[in-house]
């Protein structure tokens, strides 16, 4: 069985609410988007069990530069049915320029790997992994050393 259009829209809504809650530091709204005891991993830092979503967002809010960031989730791939689903997404995190000019810079380019489940009639995140755009996602390229490559692909 595949996802219905209604469930695809509900999943898109879940991620839109996630972006707004995270970008505005709304801990309660953020925690509502997760099951009771989720697993959240952000570049080696893992939060699990009851309260993990709120604990994760509190820790993230405390990071220097967190205020002023927006969390953009896009180009999602849904694989599953109307009860559970794996989701892969691109991630960009622009932030206000730290030098004080009215401009933006990018904090992160990455991807999300999630497992979402229907819980109490609503889609919620059960497992949420946040990674930079490096590592396994680049395995298909013959040369993965992107730090050594200039614009246009010339070393």
Could you characterize the architecture of this molecule?
With 155 residues, the chain is an alpha+beta fold. Helices cover 22% and strands 40% of the residues. The protein contains three helices and six strands. It has helices at 5-23, 27-31, 52-61; strands spanning 34-42, 45-48, 72-80, 84-96, 104-119, 122-132. Strands 2-1-6-5-4-3 form a six-stranded mixed beta sheet. Strand 1 and strand 2 (45-48) form a beta hairpin. It is globular, with a radius of gyration of 17 Å. The model is unreliable at 148-155 (pLDDT under 50).
Order of helices and strands: HHEEHEEEE
Overall spatial form: globular
Q: What's the main sheet like?
A: 6 strands, mixed
In what order do the strands lie side by side in the largest sheet?
Answer: 2-1-6-5-4-3
Fraction of helical residues:
10-25%
The poorly predicted ranges are 148-155
Count of separate DSSP helical elements:
3
Strand content: 35-45%
């Amino acid at each position: 069985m595949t996802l219905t259009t209604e469930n695809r829209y509900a999943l898109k809504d879940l991620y839109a609410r996630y972006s707004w809650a995270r970008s505005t530091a709304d801990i309660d709204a953020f925690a509502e988007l997760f099951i009771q005891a989720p697993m959240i991993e952000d570049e080696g830092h893992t939060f699990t069990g009851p309260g993990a979503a709120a604990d994760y967002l509190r820790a993230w809010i405390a990071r220097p530069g967190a205020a002023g960031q927006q969390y953009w989730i896009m180009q999602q791939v849904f694989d599953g049915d109307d009860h559970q689903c794996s989701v892969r997404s691109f991630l960009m995190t622009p932030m206000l320029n730290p030098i004080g000019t009215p401009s933006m810079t990018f904090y992160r380019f990455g991807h999300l790997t999630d497992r979402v489940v229907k819980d109490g009639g609503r889609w919620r995140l059960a497992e949420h992994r946040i990674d930079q755009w490096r590592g396994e996602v680049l395995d298909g390229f013959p040369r993965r050393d992107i730090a050594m490559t200039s614009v246009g692909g010339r070393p």
